[in-house]
Amino acid sequence: MTILASLVFGVSVVSVNRLIRMSSEQRLERGRDLVQRELARWAEEPDTGDGPARFTVLGLRGGTTLDPAVPGAPIPIRSGISSEADRALSTLAAVAKRDRAEVGSLDVDEGTLFLGARRRADGRLLWAAYTVSMSKLVANWRLIAGLLTSATVLLGVIALGTVIAATRGARGLKRSLAALEEDLTAEVPRPAIAELSSVAEGVASLAASLAAAEREHERLAEELARKERLAALGRVVAGVAHEVKNPLASIKLRVDMARTSEGVPADVVAELDAVDEEITRLDRLLTDFLVVSGRRIGRRVDTELRDVVERRLGLLATWAKERGVSLAVTGRARAVVDPDACARAVDNLVKNGVEASPAGAEVRVRIERREGLSVLTVEDDGPGVPEDRVSELFEPFFTTKPEGTGLGLAVSRAIAVASGGRLSYLREGGVTRFELSVPAEGGAA
């Protein structure tokens, strides 16, 4: 727009200058014609002798005189006209004829002075002088032309600055696009030109969207890989469960029968009890594998979460006390869950909190309703999970402890997902927080 305005102003200046020139030329031509016309008219009038003549045009002076070649007959043109005009009129008088007037011009302070001379039939010389001055209109036009010229120059400078700024902005955008090819999070500078700034804003917004899409793609790829691993694990677990669970159940049955038989020594009963505990542990491990691999949990029903938590904390209190850690629960809410599966998730989360807490600390369980969900939060004052390993937190067999299977959090997450909820990890102000969110009361599933 600035360049277009400069062109328009330039054309306007040229047009005004042309009008001024045409107007000046027309006025000069009229002045010359006036002198010739008056001399022709006067040549037809009776002789009035030497001296000024009476002219009908305001500002025109003239008169008659003898031939300048005759001694003592100077041309009487003194008033208001310089000696240079006298010499010019004398020159014209020398060549003046009767059939036409000789007209010349002379630049003076007031404008252009037209001088004319013509012979009468009696030999006398007619002379006339008329000054064409610069009118106020022409002066105003020239003022306008000057202003337009200044405006054109100013607009040209602005246009040049705009072009330079646009060129620099375009180069900056080009460099930004090259940087975005390597890194979608690269900064996109905003040029000073409004139009280019809008383009840069659009590019930055598009880059941010692409970066978000790329992160989402990576997340989905990781999720797909995890699900593929779990699917493969599920197929293995299904085979293992089939091959192990039935024999394990048979072993448990035989151990129970042997333990309850008459005449079995007490020390043998104690050993059989230990074997039964190990069988139970193996059975629970197989169940955890099935849950992690995506096998369905038990039937979900309306359950009071506070009751589930209090039962599990009662069983874990002695174990936690031995480690110098206390347990506490607050709040109350109902949820649609499998009570047994929920109890396993609570066990895993509380045990993790106790094992991570220093002596004298407290593991806190808080139950609340939040946005249509029942949220069970387990907090501890332990060191948390290293930031570079948070992405692995809910993967099967992930652990930061020297002992354990690394299935606790994976099982808890699988239970949350199977219940229609989620399990999340937060670390704020030195506090580690796991939030188990499940559907609130409202019907069995």
TrEMBL record:
Record keywords: ATP-binding, Coiled coil, Kinase, Membrane, Nucleotide-binding, Phosphoprotein, Transferase, Transmembrane, Transmembrane helix, Two-component regulatory system
Catalytic activity as recorded in UniProt: ATP + protein L-histidine = ADP + protein N-phospho-L-histidine
UniProt domain Histidine kinase: residue ranges: 239-442
Protein EC: 2.7.13.3
Coiled-coil intervals: 203-230
Designated name of the protein: histidine kinase
Domain of life according to the entry: Bacteria
InterPro entries registered for this protein in UniProt: HATPase_C_sf (IPR036890), HATPase_dom (IPR003594), His_kinase_dom (IPR005467), HisK_dim/P_dom (IPR003661), HisK_dim/P_sf (IPR036097), Sig_transdc_His_kin-like_C (IPR004358)
SUPFAM superfamilies to which the protein is assigned, alphabetical: ATPase domain of HSP90 chaperone/DNA topoisomerase II/histidine kinase, Homodimeric domain of signal transducing histidine kinase
Organism listed in the record: Polyangium jinanense
Record-annotated membrane-spanning stretches: 143-166
GO MF terms held by the record: ATP binding; phosphorelay sensor kinase activity
